[in-house]
Amino acid sequence: MKITYLFNSGFAVEFGQVLLVFDDYKDPAHAVARCLRARGQKSVFFFASHGHFDHFNGEELARFAPQVTRFFLSSDIKGSRGASLLPAERVTWLAPYEDWSDETIAVTSYSSTDLGTSFRVATQEGTVFHAGDFNWWDWLGDTHENRQLAANGFHKQLRRLEDMEADVAFFPVDGRLGASKAKGAKEFCAATQVRALVTMHNVGYPQFEVPEDFFAPGRAIPVWSPTLPGETRELVFLDKKGEFR
């Protein structure tokens, strides 16, 4: 599985005969164009988890529309000007907890603790989870009541994801949260059966360093925290153990 960082929560994932592009609102390194030029016979699927400016840009996606097999957009984006730029016959709108599948991929949408959805995408070659803005948004300077609401909302949604399996998960580790930045990712990894983690939504902050107590004993998985647009890693599994190369 080849993974390329675009910006913020944007990634291109290539494996087998499939190219998946998530939350491409900005791509300074022009990585998506390169992936499409080299795609061969790959099916191409674009995803947008919600309508925030740092996750969805209709003009950016429309540039690639002729080469895209299907767009999967969170239903909150419907009606926006950007959405109208995309070919309606190849757009699938997904509210939380909906499923869509064909002979190539199976998509399940989940809820978020912010706007929109998260996605689990399964193919014959692998499975990806992209959290969108689902996270434990524990703002340290907020009121006790608001912080408790954030904790309750996160754990309610996390129960819907318990024991979910994925080869790789993309999950926010946002430096703006200070000491709380890894709380959501830590609990997500403990509750699910993901085999590798890529952190995201950390623009402008130093690369995330995994704390010693981040994983429970025996539950450690490989982690990649990209910071430079266009960075690429290959995720390889040997004897059920994964690593980023």
From TrEMBL:
The keyword Transferase does not apply. It comes from the Bacteria. It comes from Selenomonas bovis. Keywords: Hydrolase. One of its GO terms (molecular function) is hydrolase activity. Gene3D superfamilies: Ribonuclease Z/Hydroxyacylglutathione hydrolase-like. Signal peptide: none annotated. The keyword Hydrolase applies. This is MBL fold metallo-hydrolase. InterPro entries: RibonucZ/Hydroxyglut_hydro.
